Amino acid sequence: MIDFYYWTTPNGHKVTLFLEEAGLPYRVIPIDIAKGAQFDPAFLAVAPNNRIPAVVDHEPTGGGEPIALFESGAILLYLAEKTGRFLPQDLRGRTEALTWLFWQMGGLGPMAGQNHHFSIYAPERIPYATERYVRETGRLYGVLDRRLADCPFVAGEDYGIADMAIYPWIVPWHAQQQDLDAHPNLRRWFDAVAARPATVRAYAVADSLA
């Protein structure tokens, strides 16, 4: 059983996507960040950076004490290695997948996150900041669109953790002031991931907490 500390953000959705795809048994522990639950000492014991998601695996490979992880990319990699799924085993395939996973962690997530902040949540409008992050989000959409012109999924022929990491950050494309239809390869990929039964189940988990 995996304890899954979760709230309905793109980073939270990444882990739900993996858990539903892999069919791993898990228990959702809601961390309502709007109410400050991320600062609860019990949560900080698992996730000292006071950010969701986090997991505790009570049945780690090889046995022993439970393993706690925070940071969504680390969690996806851990779960992929635990299950032997959604991450290629060959050197080139694995390298490709990890490259795009880190692209999301270091690029798309932070830039789209700042886009969300300055476009939606900032207490005052700062046109320079908004324009900067909207433009950078658009550039990254273009990078992804060009990549997907050559392969069905982000890391190649098979769906994997890179797709799971990226998809939730594309879901709010309208709020990010992007035109998904201007990126036909990205649109094709997005619709394919959205239609996966595990994706539907993952977002139903979010709906249950709304």
Automatic annotation (TrEMBL):
Q: Name one GO molecular function term.
A: oxidoreductase activity
The record's listing under SUPFAM superfamilies reads: GST C-terminal domain-like, Thioredoxin-like
Every GST N-terminal domain range: 1-87
Q: Which Pfam family, any one, appears in the UniProt record?
A: GST_C
Entry EC number(s): 1.8.4.-
Listed PROSITE patterns: GST_CTER, GST_NTER
Q: What class of enzyme is it?
A: oxidoreductase
Q: Which UniProt keywords apply?
A: Oxidoreductase
Q: Which residue intervals define the domain GST C-terminal in the entry?
A: 90-210
Q: Which CDD domains match?
A: GST_C_YfcG_like, GST_N_Ure2p_like
PANTHER family found in the cross-reference section: DISULFIDE-BOND OXIDOREDUCTASE YFCG, GLUTATHIONE S-TRANSFERASE-RELATED
The family line of this record is: Belongs to the GST superfamily.
According to UniProt, the name of this protein is GST-like protein
